[in-house]
Amino acid sequence: MTLLKDYHDTQKALEQQLLLLASLKKNLSLTKELEFEKKIKALMTRYSKTLKDVVTLFDTAAPLTSTTVHERPVTYTTGAKRLKKTLESKRQ
Fold first, then answer.
1. Rounded to an integer, what is the distance from CA 34 to the centroid of its chain?
2. Are 56 and 62 contacting, i.e. CB atoms less than 8 angstroms apart?
3. CA 41/CA 62 separation, integer angstroms
């Protein structure tokens, strides 16, 4: 008798879960999230990346693993010195 009760309880729980699943499938935000997940997984497969790689990419607290290029600061001039020299040479 216990086995029969377990069967009916499980069947009832399954029906409730199926109703919940059906209502979730109608949810627009869930649909968008599922589509996003599908696209991310496709990109991960395409570029041979793992979930850990993706999380590291978006984790702003994670330190950068690539080497940093140190460049000299660029100074921009307005060309005032060159203009001054040009004007002086024309005066002479």
1. 14
2. yes
3. 22
Q: Tell me, yes or no, if the pTM score tops 0.70.
A: no
Structure tokens at 2: 């216990």
DSSP class per residue in 5-36: HHHHHHHHHHHHHHHHHHHHHT-HHHHHHHHH
Per-residue confidence of the chain (92 residues) as pLDDT tens digits?
799 999 999 999 999 999 999 999 899 999 899 999 999 999 999 999 999 988 888 887 766 555 555 566 656 566 666 667 776 776 66
Q: Quick count: other Cβ atoms within 10 Å of Cβ 56?
A: 13
The angle at the Cα of 49, spanning 48 to 50, to the nearest 5 degrees, equals: 130
Q: What is the DSSP letter of 69?
A: P
Token readout for 30 is: 């869930």
Place of tokens 């029906």: 15
